[in-house]
Write the structure tokens for this entry.
Amino acid sequence: GNSVTQMEGPVTLSEEAFLTINCTYTATGYPSLFWYVQYPGEGLQLLLKATKADDKGSNKGFEATYRKETTSFHLEKGSVQVSDSAVYFCALFQSGGSYIPTFGRGTSLIVHP
Amino acid sequence: GAGVSQSPSNKVTEKGKDVELRCDPISGHTALYWYRQSLGQGLEFLIYFQGNSAPDKSGLPSDRFSAERTGGSVSTLTIQRTQQEDSAVYLCGSSTNTHGTAGAFFGQGTRLTVV
């Protein structure tokens, strides 16, 4: 079956540091890949997506590239802010068959001033 | 509405009582999902509705849990005889297509506390 593996958190950074949150997946075919963000006390927000190999999704300074050869979709940001503190979820939607999204366990990011 | 709406936002109930959680998906979205998020845990899939097809109930943890979707729109998740381990945030999401490329959009969740 499908699976998504994220690096364990929490990830603790100082403001303006570079962020990488690793995400790898297992799926058949060609899934679409997503990053969601959950701020404290809130629901999930779709942050960015990529629907085919080598696509780069980007939003709010975050970006991730769909790497089929390494089955990865790592999230990066060049300079984090305190307001980026949240839990980040990597997810895949499998094309064909059941379209139930598979989520990673989430990675907590804490950014200090 | 503009987004997925869930109600109530918070619910405190006594052990053994039944609860109903409501989800209004984005208009026109044919797919609807329920997930559960326990404290410090990831997202646990519960149930999936797609149009008029029979729902995928494979994630429901016990027969105390049930869900329905009326008219292809509003969905209600019902938990009977609640237990303390049912305490969690219940998230509802909806999606516009069956190809998976649009992703799903989620509501703010309902925080259920069983005392």
